Structure formats: structure tokens, C-alpha cells
Amino acid sequence: MFKQFTENINGHQVYLLSSLGIFLIFFIVVAIILFKLGKSHVEHMSELPLSDSDIHSSEKALQ
Hints:
- About 80% of the residues lie in helices and about 0% in strands.
- By secondary structure, the chain is mainly α.
- It has one domain.
- The chain is elongated, with a radius of gyration of 22 Å.
- It starts with a helix and ends with a helix.
């Protein structure tokens, strides 16, 4: 199957296949990183927008 793609590549198709390869590699790397993250880190990051304690402590530090 891949031989058919590589044998019939013209000038424009090189960009198509290279962009597809870059996208797939990036997607796979991001998926691996997300699976390796610990559950506690994910929970901490998900609670950041809702947490008021960090906002108040940084306001006190600025004053």
C-alpha cells in the first residue's frame, strides 16, 4: 500500500505526505505525554481555574 504512494509521488504530493506525517507524529507524542501524566497532576491542573487561594496569595504578594 505504501509503495503505491511512494511510487506515484509528484511535486505537490510530497508536501501532503510530509504534513500528514508531521501531524501523526505530533498527535502520537501528545497522546503518549497525556497518558504518562499522573492523575494528581491532572486533577491539580483542572482545579486551577476554580481555585481562589492562588489568586489571593498572589495579590498579597504584590501589595
